[in-house]
Amino acid sequence: MNLTIIIPTYNRPANLEACLTYLEQIKLLAKVVVVDGSVEESAKENQRIILAKRPATRYIRGEGVLHPLTRCCLALAEVSTPYCVVCADDDFMIPSALSRCIDFLDVNPDYSSAQGTSLRLPSSEGAAGWGRNSIIGNLDMDCPVERVIHHLSSYAHTCYAVHRTAVLQKSLHFAGAAPFVSLDGCLWLQAELAQSICTVVQGKSAWLPMLYICRTPTIGDRQDEQEYCHPNFSKCVAAIKQYALFPLENDPKQIKEASQLYDLVMGKYLAKRKVSLTSKSYSFWPWKGSRQTFSRKPSLSGSVRELAKLSEWTALKKAYPDAIPFNLKSKWSRNLYYRLWKS
Can you give the residue range of the structural domain that contains 257? Predict the structure, then answer.
C-alpha cells in the first residue's frame, strides 16, 4: 500500500495503545509515523507501547509543539509514499476503505483527497451516530473558488481524508503556522478549516459511499467561543479568504463577485457557530452548478452491519472493548448493535 499514516498524539498513551493494537491486528500494509507532543512521562510510555505493539513504527518527538497540525508537519518530512493520511490516536480506519481511496486517486489525478463515511462509536458518555464528515458528496467543480464556496455552504472537514502527499504537505504548512498557531494559543477550528480549504483549492475532493473510519466519542465542551474571542481570530478569517480567492487574483471582475459570495457563505458558516460578522441575508444561492449529493443517507444500523462483515471487526472489538450500545436511538438498532458487538 503506497500510504503513510501519521498519528499525532498528546498525553494519551491508552489511546495510542488501542490505535496501534488495532493496526497490528489487522496487519495493515502501510507505513506508520507517530509524532508525539506529550510530556516526558507520557512520551516514555508511548515509546514503550510502540516497541511492544508495532516496532516498525517511526517515532518522532515533537516536544513543545502543541498544535496537532504543526506536529504533523514534522512527520511529513519522513513521508516518501505518494499518499498520506492523518489518523487521530482515538480513531480506527478501515483498510479496505483506504485502499479504495488510493485506487480512486490513482485514476482521478484532478482529485486531491478522498474519504468516506465516519461512524462514531458509542460509549457510556457518548452516543453512536454519524461523524461530521459522514454525508457530504463530491466537490467536483473545475473552478477552485467555486469548490471552496460549495465546501463552506455544507462544511465537512477533510483533515482525515486520504491525500496526495504533496497536497497534504502544502495544506498542513499553511494551517500549522501563524495566525492559526501563536505563542498564546492555537485556534484549532480555524486551522482545521484552513487545512480543508487549502486541500479543496488544490484539487477536487471525493466522498465515496463506504464505511471509512470509526471514531470514538469526543467528550467535553467545544472551544468555539474561546476561539472567536481570540485576538487572532479576524486574522485567521482574512488569511483563509486570501488563500481561497488566490486563483482569481488576475481577474478583478471575477474576484470581486467571488469575494462577495465568499463573504456570504463564510458568514453563514460562522452564523451556525453563533458568530455574526454581517447582517446580510444568506437565503439566495447564485451558482448554477450544485454539489453532487446522495439522496439517501445510509442507515446507522446498515453501517453497523457493514462493519460487522469486515475482517477488522474482531480487531476493533479488542482495541475498543468499552463500547456500550445503549445510546443508539432506536431499540431495534440498539439490539442489533448489542448482538453484533457481543458476538
Answer: 102-342
